[in-house]
Design goal:
Layout: E1 4-7, E2 11-16, E3 29-35, H1 37-47, E4 52-59, H2 62-74, E5 81-84, E6 90-96, E7 102-107, H3 120-127, E8 131-135, H4 142-157, E9 161-165, H5 178-188, E10 191-192, H6 208-217, E11 222-226, E12 231-236, E13 239-244, H7 256-269, H8 274-288, H9 301-310
Parallel strand pairs: 1-4, 1-8, 2-6, 4-5, 8-9, 9-10, 10-11
Antiparallel strand pairs: 2-3, 6-7, 11-12, 12-13
Helix pairs in contact: 1-2, 1-7, 4-5, 7-8, 8-9
Bound molecules: adenosine-5'-triphosphate (ATP) and magnesium ion.
The site of magnesium ion has 4 residues, from loops.
Protein name: Sugar or nucleoside kinase, ribokinase family
GO molecular function, one term: ATP binding
InterPro entries: Carboh/pur_kinase_PfkB_CS (IPR002173), PfkB_Carbo_kinase (IPR050306), PfkB_dom (IPR011611), Ribokinase-like (IPR029056)
């Protein structure tokens, strides 16, 4: 089976307990939960049985151990996660607003996560990789950008493939060089997985079809538009395939896009037809939102298949 590698931020997430809770005053918090978009992605891919490993860095602290232990339990290759003493593991504090939008306070660049590098263990992991997945949120510093671009270069040089989820977080969009790096990654991607308005950050078109056509003409193999509870739509040079979402009670939306993407890419790498890859991906995205915490809704393939057998699409 093809091996998938991710590179980027490994964080713990700490969540405000109440909807609408402000971080401008003390309040009850939940967590720590293992997190970081690439970590969620790699954890879900591994849980589905895809060989998958992560390049990243944590501190020599309980938050770092929480993350490494979780990824290991899910079956991921953690050999390229560096453990640094003297730097704390990165954090993301999140509070949900009444309108369902989210506000984050991140500590990524100045945490252990910011020390990401292509060290000997990362080089070894990449030597065995067939596919690299990049999250836009992982392009948070010059150093992180260098790691992502060199992973892409290494994997593409041996005929491998690339997927890209912009995963835009307003709170880290201002990082220097991020905008250019997002475009550079997209230019080398085979699979593009935007959600909501992210599609329009990369196209001059103002309508969905126009943007999809423009981006496909630039060399992508396929575009998968994530549409929250409504499911997803796949586009390639032959046409489009839509797949409805599964009906679930949404407890916590964070991580859905990452779990969805991991499932889609894993099944794409296995040669599944778009409709099948979308069905598994929608199921993983739906299951992800049924638990508080971004990685708590990651399930193994058997549980995902059982959910599909009994789940209702919308
Ligand atoms: P994230 O918050 O992780 O960045 P995203 O914005 O990248 O998420 P979404 O479109 O919100 O992506 O969700 C990804 C997928 O997860 C959807 O395409 C769908 O399959 C599933 N999903 C998300 N929310 C729900 C929901 N409320 N009910 C059912 N499925 C959902
Ligand atoms: Mg996302």
């Amino acid at each position: 089976m093809k091996k998938l590698v991710g590179a980027g931020e490994i964080l713990v997430e700490i969540m405000a307990e109440r909807i609408g809770q402000s971080f401008l005053e003390p309040g009850p918090l939940l967590g720590p939960y293992p997190s970081g978009a690439p970590a969620i992605f790699i954890g879900q891919a591994a849980a589905l049985g895809q060989p998958a490993g992560l390049i990243g860095a944590v501190g020599d602290d309980d938050f770092g151990r929480l993350n490494i232990d979780r990824l290991r339990v899910l079956g991921a290759d953690v050999s390229a996660i560096a453990v640094h003493t003297g730097h704390a593991t990165g954090t993301a504090f999140v509070t949900y607003r009444a309108d369902a939008s989210r506000h984050f306070v991140f500590n990524i660049r100045n945490s252990a996560a910011g020390l990401i590098e292509t060290n000997a263990a990362a080089t070894k992991l990449l030597a065995g990789a067939d596919h690299v997945h990049v999250m836009g949120s992982s392009l948070f510093s010059d150093r992180a950008i260098t790691v992502a671009l060199s992973a892409i270069e290494t994997v593409k040089a041996k005929g491998g493939t690339v997927s890209f989820d912009p995963n835009i977080r307003r709170e880290i969009m201002q990082a220097s060089g991020m905008r250019e790096a997002l475009d550079q990654v997209l230019a080398q991607a085979d699979i593009f997985l935007p959600s909501g308005e992210e599609l329009f950050l990369f196209s001059s078109a103002t309508d969905e079809k126009g943007a999809v056509d423009e981006l496909l003409a630039r060399g992508l193999s396929c575009i998968v538009l994530k549409k929250g509870a409504a499911g997803a739509v796949y586009h390639d040079h032959h046409g489009a395939v839509a797949s409805p979402g599964f009906a679930v009670d949404e407890i916590d939306p964070t991580g859905a896009g990452d779990c969805f993407g991991a499932a889609f890419v894993s099944f794409w790498l296995r040669g599944a037809a778009p409709a099948e890859a979308l069905r598994i991906a929608n199921a993983c995205g739906a299951l992800a939102v049924t638990r508080k915490g971004p990685m708590e809704g990651i399930f193994p393939l058997e549980a995902v298949e059982a959910f599909i057998a009994t789940g209702n699409t919308q």
